[in-house]
Amino acid sequence: MKDALLATLIEEYSAVEAFASILTLETKALTALSPLELLPPIVEKKTELIGLLARLETTRDTLLAEMGFPAGWPGMELAASADARLADQWALLQKAAERARRFNTSNGELIRVRMDYNQRALTALQVAVPQKVGFYGPDGRIPARPAA
């Protein structure tokens, strides 16, 4: 079972590295002038990798339970303390996960900044303009004159 757990950790590490790589692409897209064309395939790949990571985590927890350890981080810490190969792979996985977390946090900040900018631009465009004859309305038409 230790070999199956080790194989799962190796697969998790590969998936987290792939996730970190896609986050790097997302960073480039978010800093591009027009990210809308670039983001859909990135979001699709991120979603796929998140699903894979969730399945691998479930597999890891199942293997830990079969070995008599609790699920999650506490169980992995216990299993790693009993096997050097597991400890080495677990350390690699944690470092990769931390790097991906930093990228994800940074991308979240980029998204927040872009959203704030867009909101300020919308606010500037929605400044109340006095209704004067000859001004176009939001529908692109000149409003009818009020009856006198």
How would you sum up this structure, described in words?
- With 148 residues, the protein is mostly helical.
- The protein has one domain (2-119): Methane Monooxygenase Hydroxylase, Chain G, domain 1, CATH 1.20.58.
- 74% of the residues lie in helices and 0% in strands.
- Helix 1 (2-30) packs parallel to helix 4 (84-125).
- The longest helix has 42 residues, at 84-125.
- The radius of gyration is 25 Å and the shape is elongated.
- One of its GO terms (biological process) is bacterial-type flagellum assembly.
- This is Flagella synthesis protein FlgN.
- It comes from Paraburkholderia sediminicola.
Task: Offer a quick outline of the entry.
By secondary structure, the protein is mainly alpha-helical. It has helices at 2-30, 39-66, 72-81, 84-125. The radius of gyration is 25 Å and the shape is elongated.
Write the layout of secondary structure elements.
Elements: H1 2-30, H2 39-66, H3 72-81, H4 84-125
Keywords: Bacterial flagellum biogenesis
Pfam families: FlgN
Function: Required for the efficient initiation of filament assembly.
What key attributes describe this structure?
148 residues, mainly alpha, Methane Monooxygenase Hydroxylase, Chain G, domain 1, 74% helix
Could you state the order of secondary-structure elements as H and E? Answer: HHHH
Oligomer: single chain
Number of helices: 4
Which stretches of 5+ consecutive residues score pLDDT under 50? none
Protein name: Flagella synthesis protein FlgN
Function: Required for the efficient initiation of filament assembly.
Keywords: Bacterial flagellum biogenesis
Family: Belongs to the FlgN family.
